[in-house]
Amino acid sequence: MRLRTKLASVAVGAVVATGGPVLPATAAVAAPEGAAACSSPAWSNRDGHAGRTNTDYVNIRTGPTTECASLGQAQASHSLTLHCWVAGQDGTWSHVQDDTTGVGGWIKDNLLNGYGSSLPC
Predict the structure, then answer these.
(1) Which stretches of the chain are assigned E, i.e. beta strand?
(2) Does pTM surpass 0.90?
(3) What span is annotated as the signal peptide, if there is one (predicted)?
């Protein structure tokens, strides 16, 4: 899905469905000691397509914001399974599973080839 279409889908869908702007529903995720609290939206494996990062050392996070803890890092050589996307900090984020390391979490879509998952969570 093209970036413009994905962002328009987020904005229009939220406004039409509720009659006004909304933020995605979130669930609390425990933060490490000394770290800020992090919220992670519900997700499901709706997509299942393979993906990759467009650079090395990309953080896989507990939620769709850089305020959330990193669970590990994906490399450009790693295969990822794309699950779905949500609106997050400064754009959209996809929930992924790193098939090389087994780590699952959120990566900002502009760090993924093809701009991440094509299906919303």
Answers:
(1) 27-29, 38-40, 50-51, 58-61, 70-74, 80-88, 91-98, 104-108
(2) no
(3) 1-27
Domain count, the chain: 1
Domain assignment present for residue 18? The answer is: no
- Does residue 61 contact residue 32 with C-beta atoms inside 8 Å? no
Q: Distance between CA atoms of 44 and 3, rounded to whole angstroms?
A: 21
DSSP, collapsed to helix, strand or coil, labels residue 103 as coil
Report if residue 84 sits inside a domain. yes
Residue 108, beta-bridge partner list: 93
Residue 95 belongs to what domain range?
A: 25-115
- Quickly count: other Cβ atoms within 10 Å of residue 43's Cβ: 22
* 3-state SS assignment for residue 15: helix
Within-domain flag for 20? no
Both tokens of 23, joined, read: 């933020």
